[in-house]
Amino acid sequence: MIVPGKQKITEKAAVKNLDFLSLLTENPEEYFEAKGWKKYRLRQILNWIFNKFVFSYDKMTDLPADFRETVNNELPLYIPKTEKISYSSDGSKKYLLKLRDEEYIESVLMPAGDKITLCVSSQAGCGRQCQFCATGKIGLKRQLTTSEIIGQILSGMKESLPGKLTNIVYMGMGEPLDNFENVIKSLKIIQNDKYLKFSPRRITISTCGAVPGIFKLADSGIKVKLAVSLNSAINAKRNKFMPINLKYDLEELKKAVRYYLRKSKFRVTFEYIMIKNFTMGKEDIKALKKYVGDLSCKLNLIPWNSIEESDFIAPGEKEIDDFLDELKNLSCALTVRRSKGDDIAAACGQLAGKYQK
């Protein structure tokens, strides 16, 4: 059993060798120079990867054959293998991705009007054990490498064609702030003008309340939006289905959020899962109003999405409307998020990395 907050699982040896995408967090120009490789070869490779979405050296036709072989041996270009694509009636697509050590992760591509959002994973599994989440029930397998995170994003951008990926959310499998270093490295790459030039306004990291990670994120200098999976503003209740609250309770979480707000120009989004007969009572409404009422934030209400081996019950439309009506006087922005991909187990809390033929 993995104790929440105590896990210390890193990338397995099989995936720790240097690869091309991982090199981008260092100084690829110096590496090429040290190898005696011409720097314009680096620019050619970057153009193939980030502009043409070609992920095989063999297909980079302006590179000499002998150089392609050399660079592939020394800096392999690794993109997680798509094992299965599940198609939702709402247009969403869920990708089951196989990693080099045969662990599995999932990512989800979600179109909505003129927006296309990619939900990426940061860990294989998760050790935080939130009771409403399928990922938490499988435990933490390991951290994803920087290249495995970037590989998901590049694949998602290619899959978005002829459209354009507009938003990236670190809301897939895992707790992003428990894989802090690799997540930060991936953010630096996707925001870098030489690579993907992705605007911080269009990137969100979601946390279940990893307080030290929130402080570190605030101090990192990285511009990114923050979403906090709140789900209850009552400690005794949050303790029951979010074990992280036993370590970092609501008061500590709020201190961390306030600190982030002082350091960031972005509002924090609180995500609140509506579970019938559990998180939607009068006492829940009162506590929620008090907790978020004095913060610069957005409150995102999410009807619970069913998962296996759970006794939770999703609310009906009337219950959602009544709950929303009770909160309408809040000063913060208030929205109801209708999860996409629930018919293919791709909605919020449903990712589990299962390969079902």
Walk me through the structure.
With 357 residues, this protein is of the alpha/beta class. The protein has 2 domains: 55 residues, Orthogonal Bundle (DNA polymerase, domain 1); 264 residues, Aldolase class I (TIM Barrel), CATH 3.20.20. The chain is built from 12 helices and 12 strands. α6 packs across α7 and α8 runs parallel beside α10. The chain is elongated.
Strand line-up across the major sheet: 1-2-3-4-7-8-9-10-11-12
- Class of the largest domain in CATH? Alpha Beta
Major sheet size, sense and barrel closure: 10 strands, mixed
Number of strands: 12
Overall radius of gyration: 21 Å
Shape: elongated
The end-to-end span amounts to: 29 Å
Average of the residue pLDDT scores: 91
Into how many domains do the coordinates divide?
Answer: 2
- Number of H/I helices: 12
Instruction: Give the assembly state of these chains.
Output: single chain
> Which stretches are poorly predicted, pLDDT < 50 over at least 5 residues?
1-9
CATH architectural type of the largest domain: Alpha-Beta Barrel
CATH topology-level fold name of the largest domain? TIM Barrel
Question: Helix/strand/pairing class, anyone?
Answer: alpha/beta
Our estimate of the beta-strand percent is 15-25%
What is the N-to-C order of secondary-structure elements (H for helix, E for strand)? Answer: HHHHEEEEEHEHEHEHEHHEHEHE
List keywords for this structure.
disordered N terminus; alpha/beta; 12 strands; single chain; 2 domains; 357 residues; 12 helices; 33% helix; TIM Barrel; ten-stranded mixed beta sheet; two-stranded antiparallel ribbon; DNA polymerase, domain 1
